[in-house]
Amino acid sequence: MTIATAQQHFIDHLETSVDWNKIFGVADSLYADKGFVTNADNFTRAAGVEKAVAQFSNLVRVDQKGYDFLYGEEKIEMKMGKNLFQKRNPYATKQFKVKNFYGEKKTLEDFKTQKTFDYMMVIDLTARRVVVVEDNIARPLYEEYGDGVHIRLDIGNYYECDLGEINPVMPPLKLSHGYDKAMDEFLDF
Asked: Among 17, 61, 95, 114, which one is most buried in terms of CB atoms within 10 A?
């Protein structure tokens, strides 16, 4: 895949200036935290990983509709999950959701024509892989499925970052403990 200059700067940053050991450590901690066990906790885990990405990189978390971060002027959408890459074909991902239809009057074609980000950064939390997909490559791959728009990536439509060896560094505290303490304090009035 040919890489444009702006994309190369973004990829260089991901490969050389991001502390992936801490980001994957935060993810490991959040997903192993026994205080987060319900589907309702998924938002807290996702927000925790997004905040870790912002903390340990030069990406600015903005959490806007259609993108999560800014890298300079570039809009970055982040998608993550466990076991995103297939075992039988390690170059392809399983299908994963990129857009929701909830409350939207948009169709698949609307999402395919509307640019909301410059790059999609996809993080496989299990395989410790990060790939980057340009918006103009991602949108034609959108498929309607259930309550949203999904995508499946395969070799040739993403760039895989070389992260080197990953040795996760986990935070010393469990987030659920701090969350429970903060909630107790909040309700003590």
From this structure: 61
Taking a C-beta distance cutoff of 8 angstroms, is the pair 113, 139 a contact? yes
CA 56 – CA 32 distance, rounded (Å): 21
Q: What angle do CA 6, 9, 10 make, to 5 degrees?
A: 90
| SS3 category, 148 | strand
Cβ count within 10 A of residue 184: 9
Helix (H, G, I), strand (E, B) or coil at 154: coil
| Cα separations in angstroms, 4 against 18, 66, 74, 95 | 20, 22, 13, 26
Task: To the nearest 10°, report the CA torsion of 164, 32, 45, 162.
Answer: 10
Question: What is the set of domains in the chain, with CATH numbers?
Answer: 5-187 (3.40.600)
- Residue 92 structure tokens: 């392809």
* C-alpha–C-alpha distance, residues 184 and 189, integer Å: 10
pTM of the entire predicted model: 0.90
Q: What is the pLDDT of residues 112-138, one digit of tens each?
A: 778 999 999 999 999 999 999 999 999
Residue 66 makes CB contacts below 8 A (sequence gap 6+) with 75, 77, 114, 116, 117
